[in-house]
Structures are given as structure tokens and as C-alpha cells.
Amino acid sequence: MVEVLFNGHAGRLEGRYHKSERPDAPVALILHPHPQYGGTMNNKVVYSLFTCFKDLGFSVLRFNFRSVGRSQGQFEDGPGELSDATIALDWLQHNNPDARQCWIAGYSFGAWIALQLLMRRPDINNFIAVSPPANEKDFSFLAPCPTSGLIVQGGADEIVNPQQVTVLAKRLNMQRNVAVDFAMIEEGDHMYNNHLVDLYKVAGNYVLDVLSRKAPSKKRRGRRKKSESDEEALLLEADDTAMPDEADDEDMLL
Questions:
Q1: Cβ-count burial of 161 within 10 angstroms (0-12 exposed, 13-18 middle, 19+ buried)?
Q2: Average pLDDT, the chain
């Protein structure tokens, strides 16, 4: 993992990047929670998603929205952050021109931005939205949702209403040609304290399932045994101690 800096519309953006050894490896962009409530790219949920994709062989980028950390600019509560995400995805794809798939994942505010970006970028193949703030933000723009994905929600979330996220997932699943999986981590609070491993496994197993379904059958049979023994073992070995020290468990992240 290396530190990267790239130019956004409001100035420099700061990120952390892992490049896969495989030139055709899929890519994933991870978006962090609300900047005005302490959200950064070093948030533990964001880091868990980043690590999950890295462990599954992706080239992965997470970055700070404008006004966060060393990223320049001022918070705009949506438009500016969407612009930042667009630039970050362009940077990721430019550095991985042979990538066979493109994924986006976001947590809370970052999930809201991620799903807006999904609507604007047909090159995104799949998404993971963790605790999308359905009780705070308007998700009616997902009409229709352009691709399948996964929504994860904590059943004990004190900030994002689990019932409203459940309704959002059901509404998206009523649309044609998409399948939006929904996973409720029953005892998970908003920050998934003591449940980061559960989140890692849910996300990782979803990614594995999608990749196996999209792979050609002969190649899937040839590699599946190895992926089940090696990649799923990585999911089982995940633990909370792998999360960065920069994250603050006490932040109320939206």
C-alpha cells in the first residue's frame, strides 16, 4: 500500500493505493463517511472494505474527500464529493487500463456518493453500500438502479435506521435486471464495533460469489478449489486488530 496524491477539481486529493500484481485484476474504489463527523479514509469500516478487496486480488484505492486530511478544498455535502469520487475513479482506471471489472464501495455518506457515481458511470460493474443513510438522504435517483450489488446494514445502528435501509433494498430489488443482495448484521451498530470481521466476511463472500458467477465455467472449475481454500481462509483470518490506529471508535460517523 502506498500514499498517492492526484489533482481534483478543488485541488490535491490524498489517497492510499494497493496495486495487484496481476495487470488484469479488477479494481475497487472505497468511499469514506461524512467529513464533518470525523469521516476519513482511515475509518475502520473503510479500511476493512479496502483490506477485503486487497485480499481478494483487487487493485484498490481509498482517498480523502476534499477538506479531509491532506485533501484540499471545501466540503460541499454532495456535489463536490461526487466530483472527487469521479476523479478518483478516473485515476484508478488510468493506472489499471487492463482491469476486467470495476467495483465501488462506500460507507454511510460514502455509500450515498458511491451510488450517485454508479448512476453516472456505466463502466462500474457492481457495488457494496454499507449503512446507506436512507433516513437522511434521498435515494430516489436509483430509478432504475443500473447494476446489481450488495447492501449491508447493522441491526443495532443508532444513526441509520435499519428499517428504512431494508425498505430501500426491497425497492431496488423490485426493479428488472438487477439483484441487490441485503445482509443485516443483527447486533452491528453504526460503526460495526465488534462486528468488523462479520462485515469483512459478508463483503468478501459476496465478491467471491459474483466473481465465480461471472468467470467462464472451465476456468472457474480450474481455479475454484484454490480460491475456496485460499481466499475464503483470508476471510476467516480477518480480525479487528488489523484496523488502523487513525480511526476513532468514538466518532459518530454518518
A1: middle
A2: 88
3-class secondary-structure state, position 6:
strand
Per DSSP, the three-state class of 127 is strand
Which pTM does this prediction carry? 0.88
Q: What number of residues does the chain have?
A: 254
DSSP string, 136-154: TS--TT-TT--S-EEEEEE
Q: Which residues of 3-34 are buried (b: 16+ CB within 10 A; e: fewer)?
A: ebebebebeebbbbbbbbeeeebbbbbbbbbb
Q: Does domain 2-242 have CATH number 3.40.50.1820?
A: yes
pLDDT at res. 253: 43
What DSSP designation does 236 have? Answer: H
User: How confident is residue 239, by pLDDT bands cut at 50, 70 and 90?
Assistant: low
159-172 pLDDT tens trace: 999 999 999 999 99
State the residue for C-alpha cell 465465480: 212
